[in-house]
TrEMBL record:
All copies of domain YdbS-like PH, residue ranges: 74-147
TM region(s), chain numbering: 24-42, 48-68
Keyword flag rRNA-binding: no
Domain of life: Bacteria
PANTHER family tied to this protein: BLL0215 PROTEIN
Protein name: YdbS-like PH domain-containing protein
Keywords: Membrane, Transmembrane, Transmembrane helix
Annotated source species: Nocardioides nanhaiensis
Length: 168
């Protein structure tokens, strides 16, 4: 799922479209394994069919909440960098979004922890000049290249264009 062309202004181009690195699904996969292990353990150890049925119903509900929901959120979330702004969209039933015009970006930083390094992903932290403060985009693939792209776009804005961080 990429950014819909309906979201773009006339003449605006998508330079990078991405979703979170699949590493973000590790907790959901771990929850699935633990929940299935609990269900199987109860089925093997308990001879009462009603108890086993109740446990499997609870396991199914827990799988929906701790596995299916995070996977759907991951699948519906998308981040894009255009030549004018940074776009984020996410949500299963209710779609949410955040757009940051490049003119409002005052600082870009990254965080790459020990677990992120082998996967080549990290957190992109964008500080904008409005009252929103920092926007954290977690588990961004190729985070260093994305930071460099945004940095180059912000620095290549025409000087005649007003920027909030320049006091205009």
């Amino acid at each position: 799922m990429g950014i819909s062309s309906k979201l773009l202004n006339e003449g605006e181009r998508v330079l990078v479209s991405m979703r979170q690195h699949p590493k973000a699904l590790f907790p959901a996969i771990f929850a699935l394994i633990v929940l299935l292990a609990v269900g199987v353990a109860v089925q093997v150890l308990v001879d009462v069919a009603a108890v086993t049925l109740v446990v499997w119903i609870l396991v199914a509900l827990a799988i929906c909440w701790w596995t299916l929901r995070p996977v759907l959120l991951w699948a519906t979330a998308v981040h894009a960098v255009t030549d004018r702004r940074i776009i984020t969209r996410w949500g299963i039933v209710t779609r949410r979004g955040h757009d940051i015009p490049l003119r409002r970006v005052s600082d870009i930083s990254i965080e790459i922890n020990l677990i992120d390094r082998p996967f080549g992903c990290g957190t992109l932290i964008i500080t904008n000049a409005s009252t929103d403060g920092n926007v954290h985009l977690h588990d961004i693939p190729r985070v260093e290249q994305t930071k460099l792209l945004i940095h180059n776009l912000v620095n290549d804005l025409p000087e005649s264009a007003p920027r909030l961080d320049d006091g205009a």
